[in-house]
Amino acid sequence: MFENLDALVLARFQFAFTVSFHIIFPAFSIGLASYLAVLQGLWLWTKKEVYIELFDFWKTIFALAFGMGVVSGIVMSYQFGTNWSVFSDKAGPVIGPLMGYEVLSAFFLEAGFLGVMLFGRHRVGPRLHFFATLMVAFGTLMSATWILAVNSWMQTPQGFGMNEAGQFVPEDWWAIIFNPSFPYRLVHMVLAAYLTTALVVGAVGALHLLRHTSPLRAGTMFSMAMWMLTIVAPLQILAGDMHGLNTLEHQPTKVMAMEGHYESHPDGGPLILFGIPNPDENRVDYAIEIPKLSSLILKHDLNAPLPGLDTVPEELHPPVPIVFWSFRIMILLGFSMLGLGLWSLWCRRRGTFYQSDGLHRAALVMGPAGFIAVLAGWVTTEVGRQPFTVYGHLLTADSVSPISAPAVGSSLVAFIIVYFLVFGAGTFYILRLISRLPRDPLGDLDEGPIRTAGITPAPHLARKQEYDHHGN
After folding, report:
1. pLDDT score of 46 more than 70
2. Rounded to the nearest 5 degrees, what angle is found at the Cα of 274, between the Cα atoms of 271 and 280?
3. CA contacts within 13 A on the Cβ side of 322
4. CA nearest 93: which of 39, 171, 3?
5. Digit-coded pLDDT (tens) for 398-449
6. Which secondary-structure segment (H or E) carries 255?
7. What residues form the membrane-spanning segments (predicted)?
8. Which distant-in-sequence residues (6+ apart) come within 8 Å of 47 by Cβ?
9. Contact 272, 262 (CB under 8 A)
């Protein structure tokens, strides 16, 4: 059934499929590890039990997400040998050590302290347990740093030479690691992970506020998530703008595809809000655009000239429709996150933050938005780099293994079946866990005094006063 298909297309689709499954788990676990560290730090500082209760609730979910991220990541590394052996041979002297450093430093750090974080709170003492949680959080950030260094070098390669075998060989490791796009990609990805986690935590809190279950725990996590969203969303938009300017400098063809600029604009380029890219005719049909705004954003000058894809050989064009739409999905979701954060801030000022069902429903709907935005961002980055694996130096068509289409297609079908079964079951179990937030030990706060034998109303009222104080 795959004999008439292109092995290169199937290999690219297989890697895109596996990396899309993989990236959603690190994007969640990076932010969640830091959230666990914050919760435990607040518990040590304030002695409020709600923080350690939330820690215990989220650490199980973190363990599941972390495990699925590790398993899905291992599968991708094997594809470098099966489907992309030529790329591995040519770029291995550069990317191999960097990926090895990620395992030896970040992954070993995470794995070494993960067991202490998950099972050692009553065995090693609170301060050592907090240190273990910090090390797990630091390890996730280190892992992102090494992986982003590898990917950024493939986007903006420098610090290398070529040997007689046609391999990339390192000449300056500092230049390789700290390549021109690395700082922008690292900041953009880490902030995206924090936003993804904030949206999930906020959605869980909103769900239980709407259900009126465990209001102290739900209100605490919802408040923390919305503060994170309010602060980080504008920072992410700023970081994204700076990343875009860096991409314009080093990968202008990608920006042309993102903007839908098939033609050059010598007197200022328009910002195309929406339209249907037509690569056959090299234009955007039914375009809704704002004149010269793209020049203002990219060059800070309304009349600045912007080159188009007509200045680039057609065989070097990326797939414009995919890049065009994935970029707009990412931008739309980014501004939706900003809007949700501002709405929550407005509700805080009005004193309706914990009572606004509209805000809670919006937060619940936005729960998956971080994952979608991360996927859209990675599609923009990776598809926009085409037709290169190492930008400007190694074509994707020259990187694939000498394999047949039926072989790649068969493994692709196997991946799809196994991934949906295994990771689908894991994701379903996580959703079951987050839908069952334990009730507050003394019941719902609005049910009135507890009259269970041996418990007077006084502790319950004190707990309600603590919640009211926390809410205000």
Report:
1. yes
2. 95
3. 16
4. 171
5. 999 888 888 888 888 888 888 888 888 888 888 888 887 666 554 444 433 3
6. helix 252-259
7. 20-45, 57-78, 98-119, 131-154, 186-210, 222-239, 322-346, 358-379, 412-431
8. none
9. no
Give me 44's structure tokens. Answer: 């040590």
CA dihedral 148, 151, 156, 159 (to 10 degrees): 80
- Put simply, whether the predicted model's pTM sits higher than 0.85 gets the answer yes
Q: Are 189 and 143 in contact (CB under 8 A)?
A: no
Q: Which residues pair with 278 in a beta bridge?
A: 283
What is the spatial distance between Cα 264 and Cα 280, in angstroms, rounded to a whole number? 17
Residue 124: how many other CB atoms lie within 10 Å: 15
Find all residues with CB under 8 Å of 162, minimum gap 6, and list them: 168, 169
Residue 2: per-residue pLDDT: 59
Contacts of 465 (CB under 8 A, 6+ apart): none
Q: How far apart are CA 99 and CA 151, in angstroms?
A: 10
Before 387, cis peptide (omega within 30)? yes
Element (H, E) at 288: strand 283-290
Alpha carbons 121 and 138: distance in angstroms, whole number:
19
392: left (phi over 0), alpha (psi -120 to 50) or beta: left
Nearest Cα residue to 311 out of 273, 380, 255:
255
DSSP label of 106: I
**Percentage of the chain surpassing pLDDT 90?**
46
User: Any idea which residue has 């328009």 for tokens?
Assistant: 270
Measure Cα distances from 446 to 64, 212, 264, 429, 440 in Å: 34, 9, 63, 30, 12
pLDDT digits (tens, 9 = 90+) for 71-80: 877 777 788 8
Q: What angle do CA 281, 287, 288 make, to 5 degrees?
A: 170
pLDDT band at 450 (very low <50, low <70, confident <90, very high): very low
